[in-house]
Amino acid sequence: MNITVITVGKLKERYLKEAIDEYSKRLSRYCKLDIIELSDEKTPDNASEKEEIQIKEKEGQLILSKVRENAYVVAMDLNGKHITSEEFSGFIQNCGVMGNSNITFIIGGSLGLSQYVIKRANYKLCFSKMTFPHQLFRVMLLEQVYRAFRIMKNEPYHK
């Protein structure tokens, strides 16, 4: 299985880079992982709604330019579905069974995802109604993907 994470924003903190490296190493036993980091658009203070939409659309075009045609796209979206870790594991397994072995997770920038990205998504997933920094969320996503594979293989880790 091929897992791609397309994320807006660069990782700056060393401890987050180390966590990403650790989960990337752990996941290498289960899948091919590719992380694509895209630059975020600078949002001016007190940006108007129109300016925010333009920024999301610009980021969205860049995101979509990196999505492979045969990818099963999962948009990380506040309006997405809430599922348990076990259901997430089943979701990833189901994707593989249904012939969707190229799963692309998309993490937007601070303003979220453009409607073009949402429309391209095959599935919309929400981890929480809370807001997280996208750099930290990248670690959380990789941890849950790792947990999903461990559950799938009935290996100890998930409790």
Largest β-sheet summary: 5 strands, parallel
Write down the oligomeric state.
Answer: single chain
Instruction: Identify the CATH architecture.
Output: 3-Layer(aba) Sandwich
On the 0 to 100 scale, the average pLDDT is 94
Integer tally of domains: 1
Large-scale geometry: globular
Q: Supply the CATH class.
A: Alpha Beta
SSE-based structural type: alpha/beta
Keywords: Cytoplasm, Methyltransferase, rRNA processing, S-adenosyl-L-methionine, Transferase
Function: Specifically methylates the pseudouridine at position 1915 (m3Psi1915) in 23S rRNA.
Catalytic activity: pseudouridine(1915) in 23S rRNA + S-adenosyl-L-methionine = N(3)-methylpseudouridine(1915) in 23S rRNA + S-adenosyl-L-homocysteine + H(+)
InterPro entries: Alpha/beta_knot_MTases (IPR029028), RlmH-like (IPR003742), tRNA_m1G_MTases_N (IPR029026)
Strands, helices and their partners?
Layout: E1 2-8, H1 14-27, E2 32-38, H2 49-66, E3 72-81, H3 85-97, E4 102-107, H4 115-120, E5 123-125, H5 134-152
Parallel strand pairs: 1-2, 1-4, 3-4, 3-5
Helix pairs in contact: 1-5, 3-5
Structural description of this entry:
The chain is an alpha/beta fold and 159 residues long. It has a single domain (2-152), classed as Alpha/beta knot. It has five helices and five strands. The protein has helices spanning 14-27, 49-66, 85-97, 115-120, 134-152, and strands spanning 2-8, 32-38, 72-81, 102-107, 123-125. The chain has a five-stranded parallel β-sheet, with helices on both faces. Helix 3 (85-97) crosses helix 5. The protein is globular and about 50 Å long. The two termini are 24 Å apart. The mean pLDDT is 94.
